[in-house]
Amino acid sequence: MQINTESRDVFYVSDGTAITCETLGHVLLGQFSFSANEKTFPFVESLDKVEDLVREIENSFTRTGEKPLVFFSIVLPDIRQVLVKSSAHCYDVLEDLVKKMQNDLQMEPQPKLQRSRSVKRDSDTYFDRIAAIEYTLAHDDGITLKGIEKADIVLLGVSRSGKTPTSLYMAMQFGLRVVNYPFIDDDIKAMRLLPEFEIHRHKLFGLTIDAQRLTEIRENRLSGSDYASDEQCRLELASVEALFRREAIPYINTSSLSVEEISTRILEKAGLKRRLV
Amino acid sequence: MQINTESRDVFYVSDGTAITCETLGHVLLGQFSFSANEKTFPFVESLDKVEDLVREIENSFTRTGEKPLVFFSIVLPDIRQVLVKSSAHCYDVLEDLVKKMQNDLQMEPQPKLQRSRSVKRDSDTYFDRIAAIEYTLAHDDGITLKGIEKADIVLLGVSRSGKTPTSLYMAMQFGLRVVNYPFIDDDIKAMRLLPEFEIHRHKLFGLTIDAQRLTEIRENRLSGSDYASDEQCRLELASVEALFRREAIPYINTSSLSVEEISTRILEKAGLKRRLV
């Protein structure tokens, strides 16, 4: 039995998708310095499933000599009980807050099987989300600017500045219709905005990135190319940023941000409302 | 001052993206029966910002006669203090669990500004995620099957069965490379799998949906078309499901599931490992 204090086994367990347990668990682990071997167990709705899980917990304990951590949310009492009796540190991600809310609001909670946020039988929500994803796919990477009047926002930036993942995330999470348009050589040389953008100026938002990071990303795609060269990256970024400033287009630097952070910051800076809650 | 007990103002507040507060808050609200007017305040990192927020809280309290609910996560003590003194029911989404972990693990937490899960300076994670998104975009809706050998999974289903949003979600959240292929008339008439799929049988996964739901979704796209007709939908679904069974291709019915749930169930049924944690 080899003890390892540097790393712990961590399980996310739910009778739903376990997305909530994962999201919260990641942030909680971020507050501590050990590294984690993470594993997710969604839809633990039967005794068989929870018993399999408990076996895995006990194996982990025996193997590592450390109790694994379990972040869980389970409504069914019998299943919950089997889990919390195991040799793990078990953390119910909802319990304490539900109790506080119950007390503050003087309302009885009705525990429900967890549904992830976008599950609303209200099918408008469904259609809004699908429509946003389809619109955004159809307007990715400058494929077309037709229907730009329906866009919630138009992202501009050089190749590899993060436009596509940001656009898709904004469509999927916020239900927004995003056009993204890459600055290519001609635009960069001409240092101009397409005339099509003129009447949509208020929708324009720029992405920029550090030259060094851009080179790294482009190298990963086309190693040794001019396209990836430090000189080319600097040139493109300098002129695009100059253009953003000249045209008073708001922009952010994506170098050290995740797709989630870029999207949230754009939403905030552009004062955009989510279409999905 | 008009009192409204049916609906409450709810604020998600964080010095990060507030994704964790939103995710957890949505599930918590799901346990109670009132409806919520939700608003998110990300990146509350300055006294100015928290003071604006507190003004909004006090306005809500005066306007509705009910304390709004605040689900928050804030590291900076001065900012936190301003918030918790406001006329809101404030819920720190991390505090209780961090204390329990600290006690169980006998480790001191190091509070950090929240970073959403995919922010790891480790750039492999970044590249894996981007590569998965690009691969999946390039293989959406049967555009091409070139490179199918690199796919983690191949989704099959009739038009509008949920393939595209599911594929993109799996790429973005799990870092998986997804091919999705729509069954079109010829395949349906011929009731056959493309020969290209033969050596990748183990990667095939089917999506199906209730005929009534499919009609509803297709009506929303092409109202009154044969494509959307109940008869056409039934015909396509019957033959595709027969094909799935005959070829022993695992499949799920997406009718009452969110994109998150579909993706998580597929991951589970197909025994796929996430590429991103």
TrEMBL record, chains A, B:
Its EC number is 2.7.11.33, 2.7.4.28. The keyword Transferase applies. Pfam families: Kinase-PPPase (PF03618). ADP binds at residues 157-164. PANTHER family: PYRUVATE, PHOSPHATE DIKINASE REGULATORY PROTEIN 1, CHLOROPLASTIC. Bifunctional serine/threonine kinase and phosphorylase involved in the regulation of the phosphoenolpyruvate synthase (PEPS) by catalyzing its phosphorylation/dephosphorylation. This is Putative phosphoenolpyruvate synthase regulatory protein.
